[in-house]
Structure formats: C-alpha cells, structure tokens
Design goal:
The chain is an alpha/beta fold and 245 residues long. The chain is 50% helix and 16% strand. Strands 1-7-6-2-5-3-4 form a seven-stranded mixed sheet, with helices on both faces. Helix 4 links the parallel strand 3 and strand 4. Helix 1 packs antiparallel against helix 2 and helix 2 crosses helix 3. The protein is globular and about 60 Å long.
Length: 245
C-alpha cells in the first residue's frame, strides 16, 4: 500500500506541475513587474510539488553575500532536486542558467527573462560565447550566478563529473566559485520514477574557492577540484540523512 500511495503522490505532483507550468509562465511573462515577483511564482509552484510529495528542504552553510560576484556550481540527481532549487535558492542568487529546452515550454523564454534565468544554447558556439560574455560582465558587477556543474540531471546517488563551464566563467570574471551540494533527491524520487517517498533534501554551501590569477587553461583542474569537494560534502550529507531516518 505504501508503494501505491507514494507512486500516486509523485504522479499527481508531476502532472500538476506540468499542467500548471504554462499558466505560471504566462503569469510571469504577462503580469509580474520585476524579477522578485517572477521568482516568487516559480518558488510557489516548486514548493507545491514538494509538499505534495511530502518532501522538506533544509539549507546549511554560508550563502554568498549580495554584491559579491561568485559562481555557485551545483549538482543535481533528480527532478526533486530541481524543485528544491526552485523553492529555496532564489534569495541567494542574482542570475541562473537553465537548459535551452525550458524555453520550449509555452511562455518559457519570456518567463526565464523575467526571472533572470539564462537559457544556455546547445551546439551553437557563437551564441554560447555571447552568453558567457554577458554573464561574465554581470559577475564583475557583483552578481551571484548559479550554474549546474554536471550539465544535466545525474540520475544516480552520486555527484557526476563537473564540466568546465562554471569554472571557465569564474576564471574569466576572476570571482570565487562555490560548491553547492544537493543530497536527498535521489532517495525521495529517483530520476525516471514517479514514486515519491516522504523525506528530506539537504542543501549545503561549500567554502568559496578563489580564482584570482587563474588562467582559462586551468578551468579543467578547477572543475575537478570543485567536484572533489562536492563529492565529500555529498557523502557527509548522505550520512546525515541516514542518521535522521
């Protein structure tokens, strides 16, 4: 019976989120006056998903201060982690990045612009370079950027290999890069499953890693360093979750 109830909760939460996404995007695109209002609607939609699934989110560590440019390089294991991000992280970032696929949702591109979300093009080097130039300029002005380290949902109970994008941006802007770790999404709702187990997702901000003086050809080694720290934090959070159950 538990499995049936959990599958029903997860299915209902997913269907409601998908059906409401065009409506929420339209409200953001057509009626919000600023970034804060747009993000409030997004956060509410994500929080509704998590509440339906009976999943709580806890945030730990020291978030970056406003006005101090940085790159928050994060991991994601499942769609539940995406919902935890969307419900909890907006107050700590000024700009976000998302897959261009999000723009194919009705009103998706307009909603993303209103919320300060950059849609990252795939397979278009010139467009990507223009976007990176824009983001680097924003970081130099003191903005905080959230950038996915793995470039996709990992789908495993682990931290995947971090790509160089976040590190390259941080080096070009000469701002710190901060590991941001999500743990618990795989346990409550694994990627590809509709079964939502009641539980908790933990989010932790790691210590900033300075990039002053680093060159672009050191982006790979920096990404490896951030990934290594994320792996350590993930293991600690996983242990904490196990002890709390």
């Amino acid at each position: 019976m538990d499995k049936i109830a959990e599958t029903w909760r997860g299915t209902r939460a997913s269907l409601v989120w998908l059906s409401e996404a065009p409506i929420v995007n339209a409200r953001i695109a057509l009626s919000t006056m600023n970034k804060e209002q747009a993000r409030m609607l997004m956060a509410s939609q994500c929080a509704k998903f998590l509440a339906t699934c009976r999943v709580n989110v806890e945030m730990h560590g020291e978030p970056p201060s406003p006005g101090k440019g940085c790159v928050l390089n994060y991991n994601e294991t499942s769609f539940a982690d995406v919902m935890a991000y969307g419900s909890s992280l907006w107050g700590h970032i000024d700009r976000a990045a998302a897959a261009e696929l999000y723009g194919y949702l009705p009103f998706g591109r307009s909603a993303a612009r209103k919320a300060g979300i950059e849609l990252v093009p795939r397979g278009n080097r010139q467009a990507t370079e223009r976007l990176l130039h824009k983001i680097v300029a924003a970081l130099k002005r003191g903005e905080r950027l959230a950038w996915g380290g793995e470039g996709r949902l990992q789908g495993q109970d682990a931290v995947g290999r971090f790509k160089v994008g976040g590190s390259l941006i941080a080096i070009r802007a000469q701002v710190p890069i901060i590991p941001l770790v999500f743990c618990g999404g795989h346990q409550v709702m694994p990627l590809g499953s509709m079964r939502a187990r009641a539980g908790k997702i933990l989010i932790r901000f790691g210590a900033p890693i300075p990039t002053t003086g680093l060159k672009e050809d050191e982006a790979r080694s920096l990404a490896d360093q951030v990934q290594e720290i994320a792996v350590e934090i993930y293991a600690e959070l996983k242990e904490a979750l196990a002890l709390s159950t």
